[in-house]
C-alpha cells in the first residue's frame, strides 16, 4: 500500500484528509479500514481522531509552523533604527557628497 505523506500536502488538502478520517471514524470504520480507504497510516489516523475528540473542528485546521514575525530578532527596534540612520548618514559620504 502506498501511504500519503501528510507533511507534503498543502493546508487545504491536509484539512480535507483530516475531515475524511474523522468522518470515517464516526461511521465506525476501524483504523485498518481507514488506512486502506485514505492512504493515511493507522497511527496517524488515530492521532487525528484523538486531536479531534480533544479540540473539535479546530483540530482539523493545519497549524502554522516556523518563526512568528519579529520573535527572533537579535537587535532591538532602537538598535535597528540607529543602524539605519548610520547607513543613511554615511552613504552620501561614500560618494563624495556632503550631507
Radius of gyration: 25 Å
Number of helical regions: 4
What is the overall shape? Answer: rod-shaped
Low-confidence regions: none
Largest sheet: none
- List the domain count as a whole number: 2
- Terminal CA distance: 70 Å
Helix content class? 55-70%
Number of strands: 0
SSE series: HHHH
Q: Helices and strands: which structural class?
A: mainly alpha
Strand residue content: under 5%
- Average pLDDT over all residues: 88
Describe the model.
Helix content is 57%, strand content 0%. By secondary structure, it is an all-alpha fold. It folds into 2 domains: 6-60; 66-99, no CATH class. Helix 1 crosses helix 3 and helix 2 (31-38) crosses helix 3. The longest helix has 18 residues, at 77-94. The model has no long low-confidence stretch (mean pLDDT 88).
Write the topology of this structure.
Layout lengths: L10 H16 L4 H8 L3 H14 L21 H18 L5
Helix pairs in contact: 1-3, 2-3
Fill in the keyword field for this structure:
99 residues; mainly alpha; 2 domains; 57% helix; rod-shaped
Amino acid at each position: 500500500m502506498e501511504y500519503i505523506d501528510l507533511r507534503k500536502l498543502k493546508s487545504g488538502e491536509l484539512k480535507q484528509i483530516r475531515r475524511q478520517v474523522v468522518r470515517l471514524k464516526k461511521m465506525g470504520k476501524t483504523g485498518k479500514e481507514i488506512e486502506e480507504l485514505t492512504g493515511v497510516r493507522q497511527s496517524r489516523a488515530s492521532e487525528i481522531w484523538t486531536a479531534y475528540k480533544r479540540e473539535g473542528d479546530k483540530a482539523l485546521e493545519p497549524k502554522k509552523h516556523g518563526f512568528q514575525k519579529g520573535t527572533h530578532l537579535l537587535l532591538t527596534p532602537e538598535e535597528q533604527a540607529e543602524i539605519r540612520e548610520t547607513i543613511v548618514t554615511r552613504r552620501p559620504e561614500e560618494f563624495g557628497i556632503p550631507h
